[in-house]
Every structure is written in structure tokens, then in C-alpha cells.
Amino acid sequence: DGGITQSPKYLFRKEGQNVTLSCEQNLNHDAMYWYRQDPGQGLRLIYYSQIVNDFQKGDIAEGYSVSREKKESFPLTVTSAQKNPTAFYLCASSWGGSGANVLTFGAGSRLTVL
Amino acid sequence: AQRVTQPEKLLSVFKGAPVELKCNYSYSGSPELFWYVQYSRQRLQLLLRHISRESIKGFTADLNKGETSFHLKKPFAQEEDSAMYYCALSHGSGGYQKVTFGIGTKLQVIP
User: Fold this and answer.
1) CA-based, 20 to 30 A from A73: which of A5, B8, B77, B88?
2) A2-35 per-position pLDDT tens digit
3) Is A52 on the interface with B (CB under 8 A)?
4) Which residue positions in chain B have pLDDT lower than 70?
5) Residues of B in contact with A106 (CB under 8 A)
6) How far is A101 from chain B (nearest CA, A)?
7) What is the pLDDT of residue B28?
8) Does residue B70 sit in helix, strand or coil?
């Protein structure tokens, strides 16, 4: 099955702890994205990466970090500096570039800070 | 700045009635626009894109550059159309493409 796998599906964290969300794709896509989905706010871009070893900040990057060491993997770390980390996180990938940049989404990870 | 506006958080229509989900954008370049849909307990997925000028599940959307709009329309709503709909704009420069989403509109089709 080709697609995007996010893990874990649910995650609980104590305040002050960092947590890493996994995103793996086997679609051979170049570009990968992390979004945060909150009720009434839609999807907001956290980080994105067009190629391996390169990534760019999105609109709400503060308190988050990423790496792109392999084409198929784009993990997101939610650090203790993120003031309101409880949210639903979506990973996506695409062929990248202009011209019908269609995103394929994972099933999401729900993070709850206790 | 690039922005996608969906003015309605919730739209309720009766089965068989026409549907129009509004989307306006602000972007100085040539826009690439999409509609994504999220059905209950399913992943967010592409519904249609303006470049294809296609009709998917009876839905169409026309890009109006003069009004900077990309409204989603369907002549007769069906119960299975109930879902969350997001309008999205792909934009960028220098080889970096971002996709900006609106806040979404929940479509509720009343039987």
C-alpha cells in the first residue's frame, strides 16, 4: 500500500517534555509538510521540506523542530517551548514544484499535554 | 501576504438543494487552487483542482481571477456530501512551494 504513515496515533505528554511525531511516506514524493489542525482555525503550516537535508519554516514554526535526513521520513519534534501543543498534527507529501501541487495526507497524530 | 478566506464555518442545506461553498484568496501571482474534503473518520483528501477543470462527485469550482474567488458548487446536495471542506492555495518562489489552507467549512446536508 502506498501512502503516508504517521505514528503514534495518540500521544500524551507532560508539560516540559519534548515529543517526536513520526511521518513516513513510500510515494517517492520530494516534498513533505507538517500542519497543525485546530477547531475553527483550519490547517496551519508548521514546517515544509522540498528536498532531503533542506526544510523551511512555515507560518507557526516556533516551538517546533524537524529534520529531513531521508527522502521518505520527516519527523516533527514538539518542544517544551511550544506554548499550546495540544492539537491534531497532520503530515502530507507531494511531488513538489509548481503546477498541480497535490498533497497526500496521513491519518494524523493527536497530541495531548497533561 | 497569501491568504485563503472561507467565510462560513458551517453551511446547512437540505438534500436536493444547491450547494455553494465560498472561497476567496489573496495572491499577487498566478494562483493554483484546490478543494480538499475530509469525511467523518477519513483522511483529508483532494476533491478537485482548478487546473483540471473537472467535476468530481458532481462538484465543480471555477476560478474567477477578477473576484479572486474559487467557489465550490453542486446543483443537488446528497447526504453523503456532509463533510469538512477546505479551500487551499499553492504558492511559492525559488523552488519552494507552500500550500495555505482556509479555516474550512462544515457542510451539513439535512435529509
Assistant:
1) B88
2) 699 999 999 999 888 999 999 999 999 999 999 9
3) no
4) 94-95
5) 43
6) 7
7) 86
8) coil
B37 touches chain A (CB under 8 A): no
Given a contact cutoff of 8 angstroms between Cβ atoms, the answer to whether B91 and B100 are in contact is yes
CB contact under 8 A, A97 and B51: no
B51: DSSP letter: G
Dump pLDDT digits (tens) for A49-97: 999 999 999 999 999 999 999 999 999 999 988 888 999 999 999 987 6
pLDDT at residue A99, rounded to an integer: 64
Candidate from A41, A50, A101 with C-beta closest to B99: A101
Candidates B22, B82, B86; CA nearest to B48 is B86
Cα–Cα distance, A65 to B87 (Å, whole number)? 27
What residues in B contact A42, CB-CB < 8 Å? Answer: 6, 86, 101-104
